[in-house]
Structures are given as structure tokens and as C-alpha cells.
Amino acid sequence: METLLPKFDSVFSIDCVIFGFDEGELKILLIERNEEPFKDWWALPGYIVEQEESIDHAAERILYELTGLRDIYMDQFYTFGDVNRHPQGRVITVAYYAMIRLNGSKELKPISNYASKAVWISVNDLPKLAFDHEKIFSRGFEKIRNKISYQPIAFELLPEKFTLTQLQQLYEVILNKKLDKRNFRKKMLNYGILKELDEKQKGVSYRAAKLYKFDKRKYTRLFQKELTFGK
Amino acid sequence: METLLPKFDSVFSIDCVIFGFDEGELKILLIERNEEPFKDWWALPGYIVEQEESIDHAAERILYELTGLRDIYMDQFYTFGDVNRHPQGRVITVAYYAMIRLNGSKELKPISNYASKAVWISVNDLPKLAFDHEKIFSRGFEKIRNKISYQPIAFELLPEKFTLTQLQQLYEVILNKKLDKRNFRKKMLNYGILKELDEKQKGVSYRAAKLYKFDKRKYTRLFQKELTFGK
Questions:
Q1: Does B129 reach chain A within 8 Å, measured CB to CB?
Q2: Distance (Å, rounded) from C-alpha A225 to C-alpha B19?
Q3: Looking at the domain assignment, is residue A58 inside a domain?
Q4: Per-residue confidence at A107, pLDDT binned at 50, 70, 90?
Q5: B116, B147, B178 — which closes off a domain?
Q6: Counting beta carbons within 10 angstroms of the beta carbon of residue B27, is it exposed (0 to 12), middle (13 to 18) or buried (19 or more)?
Q7: How far is A37 from A139, CA to CA, in rounded Å?
Q8: What letter would DSSP give residue A9?
Q9: Do A133 and A167 share a domain, yes or no?
């Protein structure tokens, strides 16, 4: 069939904002690029979509090649299409995000050679990023900040057993504000969504705190009943 | 600067899902295409992003050219990037949506000649659509269905003065279910977000219904206080 499509020098790319919570800090995964013109720059894990792959598949493949992570459930959150966002040509990038449970934020091993390393870095301590990746990160952060008010995302980031301090820290870093400890605990306990365990924190020398679990059924229900008006 | 970008035959496009509420029905704007291979097919208003324009600008331009509508506030909601979604080559499309207040759903006038007409059609009565536009529409509909539970969108679709029947119809078509009239009215009136006016519906021969307005301040606040826990 004759094609009516114009011939443009344009490519699609994928960029990933992968959130993890560790040591009381919200972190994202960054790579150090290994190619000009951004050699040695920090960037979000991302690269070009191949001609013959879907964007969802590209997102999985690229994250794996750059960080060794796989089987991570990612969702699109925004597509960035300003004309001059890439110095080498027209590149429209589809941004994906994921929230994962970190078990110690050790350095990850890139498989592809277009990154020299992949590291978890606190969102409060980000280096200068390549391209428009600061903008992409900010939008991703805004996404989870909004989401925390209508979906149960603390689940996805906290370990299965956690302390109230960890829970509060998570809310504080995502909402970007200090919360009153007494108030926070009272509210959280009143919701009836936390199950107190017969266990305490391990590896803490002084005053180990109690551990809690979410009552998943109640937690999810709490987030469903919000504004059900009309229903 | 030497470019490292590959040369792909790929283009970006924009597709728009424009919602309006009229005569008790949720409608979207469709165009009839005027070009092969989809001549005479119904499709969402959409076309190709030019090499030198941002995707946001393209969305405005394309909607205007196809429907004559302008200054419509649109938001991206999803990017569709399956390999074979377009019969003529690799086309990744960024989908935008908008909700607008309809004043009589008359036919609109395309300015560009790649559409022969632009018409408001009820979401319950859609014809077969070109490309993967049914999928794009469904995802857009899902978007506003989710949104109605955490953001005040009835505002954007209803006329400034409306009857309780209109309000209920709007919720029913978006949530896609019948609601109990007595219950719905009781809930809505209890929220204290509706202001009863000293006016009745015009142009109705029999039992004209009372008109209401939203108390915007209260309505917005209701949607903010939902799940503010941790805040």
C-alpha cells in the first residue's frame, strides 16, 4: 500500500522513574550514561524504542538492559514532546513509573554498555540530570503525590512489616512536609487498617519499635469509599 | 553535531476524545475522514504532529482544523504505541481528552479538508471507528469514570444552572449504572454543595423542575477532604 505518511527524522524513547523507599528516604533509580553527548551525566533509565516493538515492551527491555531489573510493573504517566527536548533531533519520550519495595539499595548492574552504572539516589539529593529529566522526574513525583490521596500506594513501597516511624517517614517524604507524630499515629490507628504484630524491629540496639502490617482488605476498602457519592 | 539517533520511519500523531453532556447523554466528537485508506470512516479528531511543533501545540491545532473548536483545555491521558496500530507505518499516538459544556450539539465545521464533517455522537451509540480508536475512546471514558470519584468534573460538563435530573443523568452515564432517585437526591442535597435557585427550567411544557447551581467553594472542598489522612 502506498504510504501517505510523511518522512520525519523522529524517534520515540522511553524514560523510567522508578521509586523505592529505603532508610527513611524516597529514592529513584538513576544511571550514569556512557555515551556522548551525555557521557558521565546522570539520567533516568531510558533509551530509544525500536521500530518493531511496542512502547510497553520497550519500557521493560530498556529498564532491564540498564539496571538488570525485570518483571517490574510499570505504568505510563506522561509523554514529553517539546520540540527541542533532545539535542540530537526530534525525540518524543513516553515516561513510565513504578514503585518497588527496596531491600537495601545496593548498586545495580547495567547489562547494556550505554550505562556505566545504576544507583538508587534520594529524591532530596539528586544530581543535575541530562536532557529534560528533571522535569520528567518532577512530574512523576507529582503523580505519586497525588496518587497517595486516593490509592493505597504505601503498600507498594514499605516492607511487609514496618514501624509507625517508617510509615510516617514515607508520608512525609511523599507529601514533602513534616507531620505531627501524635496526630499521625492517632489517625492511622483509628482507621483500623494497621495490625500490631507480636514482633519488634531487629538490628536496633536501643528501644526497638513495634512492627505493624497492613490489614490489606480494610486498607483497600478505606481508599474505595472516599467519594462514592452518586454511587 | 553528529547524530547518533537512528533513522526510523516513524511519526507521532494526536487523537482527541472530547466529551460533552447534552440532552441527558454523554457525547464525544467524531469526524468523518476524507482520505484513504479510511475515507468515510468515523474517527476521533486526530492527525500527525509536525516536525517543528510540540505535541501540546499539535493537539490544539489539529482539534481546531478538524472541528473549528479552539481554546479548549485538553490534557494528555495515554500514549498508544503498539507496533501495528496504523496500517501505513509506525505511528505512536498521544491521546488527549477534554470535557466541555455543550450548548446544543450542532454539527461543527471542519476547516481542514481531511475531514468532511465533525459531529457530536452519544457514547451509547458510537459507529465503528477507524484504527484503534475504539480502544482510545474506551480508555478515555475509563479516565473520566475514575476521575469523577476524586475530582469535581460535573462542573465542567453541566450548564451553570441545572436540574437534579440532569445531574443524576450525568452521574448515571459516566458511572454506567442506574441510580436510585430518592437516594441520589438525598445524598446530593445533604452534601450542602447545591444552591437551590428561585428559577425553574424553561421551555418545558409540563412540571418544570427547579434549577440548581453548584456552590463551587464547597463542592471543591468536598473533593479535597476525601482521604487526607497523613496530612
A1: no
A2: 26
A3: yes
A4: confident
A5: B147
A6: buried
A7: 25
A8: -
A9: no
